[in-house]
TrEMBL record:
Domain (NTP pyrophosphohydrolase MazG-like): residue spans on this chain: 28-102
CDD domains reported for this sequence: NTP-PPase
Record's protein name: MazG nucleotide pyrophosphohydrolase domain-containing protein
Lineage: Bacteria, Bacillati, Bacillota, Bacilli, Lactobacillales
PANTHER family: IG HYPOTHETICAL 16995, NUCLEOTIDE PYROPHOSPHOHYDROLASE
Length: 108
């Protein structure tokens, strides 16, 4: 699956549930929430939680949670880019071009 195909599916999924009614500014809050959950997932993997009464999950479960949270962040970025009619494949190209220009003195 490529990013554009997933974005199209995701936009349709959100539309069916009327989740597309939220403005980009509100959607940014959802992205921020997902980044917080991603932060917690990384902390659990890297440092542990050391929370009284909480069992320590197996590394496999922690990694699965990290994958889920990364996907949630990606989905919010794809929804935002869709709201601004930006092709997600172009985001990849924009990132690569910017970094190559910024660090043009370095060899690949």
């Amino acid at each position: 699956m490529d990013l554009s195909t997933h974005q199209a599916w995701l936009v349709a999924f959100y539309h069916r549930r009327h989740w597309d009614q939220y403005s980009p500014l509100i959607r940014l809050n959802f992205l921020t929430e997902e980044v917080g959950e991603l932060s917690r997932a990384i902390r659990a993997l890297e440092l542990g939680r050391d929370h009284p009464g909480e069992q320590v999950p197996a590394k496999r479960a922690l990694t699965a949670n990290l994958e889920e949270e990364l996907a949630d962040v990606l989905d919010q970025v794809l929804i935002l880019s869709g709201q601004f009619e930006i092709n997600p494949e172009q985001l990849l190209q924009t990132s690569e071009t910017k970094l190559k220009q910024r660090f043009s003195f370095e060899k690949d």
